[in-house]
Specification:
heterodimer; A: 747 residues; mainly alpha; 3-stranded mixed β-sheet; 29 helices; 19 strands; elongated; B: 301 residues; 65% helix; transmembrane helix (chain A); CIC-7 (chain A); transport (chain A)
Chain lengths: 747, 301
């Protein structure tokens, strides 16, 4: 039995007593690397504890009651969709306004100084504005909620996998996330606002479904039935789907994203509800944005990113052209792998050396300043001038040294929010960019994007990947049309930009089904489905040959005990006996309070589940349950004297969820320590057990499919010999020389 | 391209035969459009205007009992005249574009007769020509012809250059023309010496640009002004090459390289001075002789 980890609200570090310190110092210390499992992560309790309280409650509940529950689930999903859509809308409008203000200020300044000299001042102004925005965002993230950094997709993946990441679905995280993303996009970093939407949606879902906020200390006394990990997980997957749907205007893509990331726990009704949430979310966003754009009812922006329309007849797509896209399949995977490798080393460096918040803020500011500088230098030295078109999408055309009536083409790529740049790469007419501009842009943006991802700001990687891909895709399209030289169907480089964008994104994140559907839905043209699918498939195969996807890398580097789909191959010879933790701390059916308090207080063995014995296994009781019992002082000796008092109900356990008080906050007097506690009523009487000889893959399958937290290993006579937990299973993985074992570490 | 287009055409037609025939029709129209572009000479002779006589002689309708009445024929005649006049004007002032200034009377009169025909008000003898002229066949030629020209007029935004009643040029337009002429005459003056020109005409050119910018904001530009401005800009930037000099390369490079230098210092200093984060390894409780990596390796071999 082995599940060590700080309970959510306690900080382990503070409680280390001197003598434990000596023990700790004897332990080996190594620099952070990817082959570690952190102790701070725990499992979620997906397994329902079928104790007597539960059975009683079920008996009391009428048929009507269960119907109402179902209706409530639908209402919650609707609310999740609505709120997620609103948040997306807020982000979009805020970014638009702030970026608009910034770019028009810089543009005015540049125009003024182009004529009279002093352009280096404009450069400094631009860099300073960028840094200022990013600084505010980075301070919020680094000092108030570090978990809000990055896109949040790895964290949500872990959550759906069954890992409890501290603070990941709190209201505070949501607030910081939204604020941070607005700052970092407005600050001109090479990031997008799409990834964080998924995290935001998940937080909204976790909050709404509980009917209360522990951060705000407000309990609406609704949806109390759903205060359990199992129910919450279902809603979080709906929230993630709603987030994807709002980010890309892709409701089906959102559902498939949840399916792909959390598919081990799935059923048909849940899928249907998730789809409902996704639809509501994209519709809400669309509706409110149409009001913002002054055309209420004209539903033209279903997502945060809008790829614009790809008309079938204009950019006619022809079957055999998808084979011509063929050379394309490889750079996507290779460049994606390169991106991931560089980012991997950078992230390790960051974890090891740049771990202090003030350093993190400084780094983010530096990146912002350098981004502006590089962009400015590119624009300054670019000689690519293009005439201003009547239907040009350029919001802030910069003339600089171009002839009057023309604009600097490099500026359309750099002097813009990344989403707009993607759109202009997709849709600007042929000839809007010259190949040199695109080549340089791809290179520079690649470096900036690699460097930016992993900073302590909340920001996504989708848009920069799309932008890099679109740039080299368009370059490829232009080269192709010069080779074939005839004014023909190849002439439209926009669709090559689209395919390139898909290839690059697929090469970096390695999502398959959901990404294809997201891309198809975002372009709104099913005919592109086939080439996009081929491209993503190849990108994944080629990329996986070198390194895993970006999100998996970051999950690994966070030392999360993540369970993949299957146990590592060649692990059948390992049996439960070798995998399990042993010996196990057990309790008796009627246990002395003093012993329970002592076991729970022992920080060196921070266990979470305790088999109940004597002799044969009779049940399993969780730390959270014991704490609630101690808090309510449910002792055998008191039972007679307090007959008038009501009995403990399941509701009492739910009220404490999800932040159970730490054991230290519960006061147990010397007298009470001698009391006895009857666990029969509260323990789960039928925990899952396996015999000692069960192979690892078998244990793994049981664990993964049922979402277990503890699996008791028993001998022939049903006596407890060990306990398998998530970290026992997650430590095996396939390395270069066969099976390797990850080490446990305190982080 | 031909080969591929034909290939697709065949494939596409084969595929959609039983769905719809209309889909197929899209593809041949593409190819035929291409070939038409290659043979412009074949198109020209067709546009010979037919005389009134040939109109009658060709017309089979004279044999029909339900003939057009005199009034409608008269309307049709006026429409023809005004149409020709207006189209003539458009082509005459196509390059450089001066259609708005010169053709607004033509457009107004054409618009008038078109409205007259299309109105349902009965003329003398209680006859409405709307149905008989405009809607008796599927071609609806009068409608299509007018529609095209109206579209051109709209996309040229000529209304924005005209006064409220569309009868004269607006004051803004006249003022812009005057300013433009100032600049052009200045250009004329310094035709020889471009460096002089760039210096001395700058004031008037800048004034023109500012005026243009403000008119752009007020939505009082039409194609005439846009085109005139475009040509002037090209004269200024391309012909006289009055471009802004790129003089500040050194300071820009200096500031940029300073900025690029900062992260290097930052990373170096944090690498050297920041304490490396160490992780404390924990040894979990295991059943005897089972958990070390050595063991796995042993068992593997």
């Amino acid at each position: 039995m082995f599940h060590v980890g700080s309970r959510s609200t306690v900080d382990l570090e503070e409680e280390i007593t001197p003598e434990e310190d000596i023990v700790k110092s004897r332990l080996k210390e190594i620099p952070h690397n990817e082959k570690l499992l952190s102790l701070k992560y725990e499992s979620l309790d997906y397994d329902n504890s079928e104790n007597q309280l539960f059975l009683e409650e079920e008996r009391r509940m009428s048929h009507m009651g269960f119907r109402c529950l179902e209706i409530r689930r639908w209402v919650i999903c609707g609310l999740i969709g609505f709120l997620t859509g609103l948040i997306a809308c807020l982000i979009d409008i805020a970014v638009e306004e702030l970026a608009g203000y910034k770019y028009s200020a810089v543009k005015q300044n540049i125009e003024k100084f182009t004529e009279f000299g002093g352009l280096s001042i404009s450069l400094i102004l631009w860099a300073a504005l960028n840094s200022a925005f990013v600084m505010v965002g980075a301070i919020a993230v680094a000092f108030f909620e570090p978990i809000a950094a990055g896109s949040g997709i790895p964290q949500i993946k872990c959550y759906l996998n069954g890992v409890k990441i501290p603070c990941v679905v709190r209201l505070k995280t949501l607030a910081i996330k939204v604020f941070g993303v607005i700052c970092s996009v407005a600050g001109g970093l090479a990031v997008g606002k799409e990834g964080p939407m998924i995290h935001s949606g998940a937080v909204v879902a976790a909050g709404v479904s509980q009917g209360r906020s522990t951060s705000l200390k407000k309990d609406f006394k609704i949806f109390e039935y759903f205060r359990r990990d199992t129910e919450k997980r279902d809603f979080v997957s709906a929230g993630a789907a709603a987030g994807v749907s709002a980010a890309f205007g892709a409701p089906v893509g959102g559902v498939l994203f949840s399916l792909e990331e959390g598919a081990s726990f799935w059923n048909q009704m849940l899928t249907w509800r998730i789809f409902f949430a996704s639809m509501i979310s994209t519709f809400t966003l669309n509706f409110f944005l149409s009001i913002y754009h002054g055309k209420p009812g004209e539903l033209s922006s279903p997502g945060l990113i809008n790829f614009g329309r790809f008309d079938s007849d204009v950019s006619s797509y022809i079957p055999f052209e998808s084979f011509l896209f063929f050379p394309y399949y490889f750079p996507g995977g290779m460049l994606g792998a390169l991106f991931n490798v560089i980012n991997y080393w950078l992230t390790i460096f960051r974890i090891r050396y740049i771990h202090r918040p003030c350093l993190q803020v400084m780094e983010a500011m530096l990146v912002a300043a350098v981004t502006a500088t590089v962009a400015f230098a590119m624009i300054y030295f670019s000689n690519d001038c293009q005439p201003l078109g009547q239907d040009s999408t350029e919001e802030y055309p910069l003339q600089l040294f171009c002839a009057d009536g023309e604009y600097n083409s490099m500026a359309t790529a750099f002097f813009n929010t990344p989403e707009r740049s993607v759109r202009s790469l997709f849709h600007n007419p042929p000839g809007s960019y010259n190949p040199l501009t695109l080549g340089v842009f791809t290179l520079v943006y690649f470096v900036l994007a690699v460097w930016t991802y992993g900073l302590t700001v909340s920001a996504g990687v989708f848009i920069p990947s799309l932008l890099i891909g679109a740039a080299w895709g368009r370059l490829f399209g232009i080269l192709l049309s010069t080779i074939t030289s005839s004014q023909s169907i190849w002439a439209d480089p926009g669709k090559y930009a689209l395919i390139g964008a898909a290839a690059q994104l697929g090469g970096i994140v390695r999502m398959t089904l959901s990404l294809t559907v997201i891309m198809v839905e975002a372009t709104g043209n099913v005919t592109y489905g086939f080439p996009i699918m081929l491209v993503l498939m190849t990108a994944k195969i080629v990329g996986d040959y070198f390194i895993e996807g970006l999100y998996d890398i970051h999950i690994k580097l966070q030392s999360v005990p993540f369970l993949h789909w299957d146990a590592p191959p060649t692990s059948h010879w390992l049996t439960a006996r070798e995998v399990m933790s042993s010996p196990v701390t057990c309790f008796n059916r009627v246990e002395r309070v003093g012993r329970i308090v002592d076991v729970l207080s022992n920080t060196s063995t921070n266990h979470n589940g305790f088999p109940v014995v004597p002799g044969k296994i009779c049940g399993l009781i969780l730390r959270s349950q014991l704490i609630v019992l101690l808090k309510h002082k449910v002792f055998v000796e008191r039972a007679s004297s307090r007959l008038s008092q009501r009995r403990l109900q399941l509701k009492d356990f739910r009220d404490a969820y999800p932040r159970f008080p730490p054991i230290q906050s519960i006061h147990v007097s010397q007298d009470e320590r001698e009391c006895m506690m009857d666990l029969n009523e509260f323990m789960n009487p039928t925990p899952y057990t396996v015999p000692q000889e069960t192979s690892l893959p078998r244990v793994f399958k049981l664990f993964r499919a049922l979402g277990l937290r503890h699996l008791v290993v028993v001998d022939d006579e049903n006596r407890v010999v060990g306990l398998v937990t998530r970290k026992d299973l997650a430590r095996y993985h396939l390395g270069k020389d066969g099976l390797e074992e990850l080490q446990l570490a305190q982080t | 391209m031909d080969l591929s287009a034909k290939f697709t055409f065949v494939i596409a037609c084969w595929a959609v035969t039983f769905i719809t025939v209309a889909d197929c029709a899209i593809y041949p129209s593409e190819t035929s459009g291409d070939s038409a572009r290659k043979l412009p000479s074949a198109v020209i002779p067709v546009s010979q205007p037919s005389t009134l006589g040939s109109f009658y002689s060709l017309s089979l309708s004279s044999t029909f009992p339900e003939d057009l009445n005199e009034y409608c024929i008269e309307l049709l005649r006026i429409y023809r005249q005004r149409y020709v006049a207006y189209a003539n004007c458009l082509v005459t002032y196509a390059r450089p574009v001066k259609v708005c200034q010169n053709c607004y009377t033509g457009f107004n009169s054409l618009d008038g007769i078109y409205k007259n025909i299309s109105s349902d008000q009965p003329g003398p003898g209680n006859i409405s020509c709307h149905d008989s002229l405009m809607r008796s066949d599927r071609l609806m030629l009068l409608y299509a012809l007018f529609n095209k020209l109206d579209e051109i007029w709209t996309s040229a935004k000529c209304k924005q250059c005209l006064s409220k009643d569309q009868e004269a040029l607006s004051n803004d337009t006249v003022y812009f023309m005057a300013t433009l002429n100032q600049s052009l005459s200045c250009f004329e003056q310094y035709q020889r010496n471009h460096t002089e020109l760039c210096k001395d005409c700058k004031a008037s050119y800048r004034k023109l640009k500012e005026l243009y910018g403000s008119m752009d904001k007020n939505q009082t530009l039409c194609i005439d002004l846009e085109d005139a401005m475009n040509i002037t800009q090209q004269l200024w930037s391309k012909n006289f090459s009055c471009l802004l000099p790129r003089e500040e390369t050194v300071p820009v490079i200096a500031v940029s390289s300073f900025m690029l230098f900062l992260p290097i210092i930052f990373y170096l200093s944090s690498f050297l001075h920041s304490e490396q984060k160490k992780r404390k390894l924990i040894h979990p409780k295991r059943a005897k002789s089972s958990n070390s990596l050595m063991n796995i390796q042993d068992k593997f071999n």
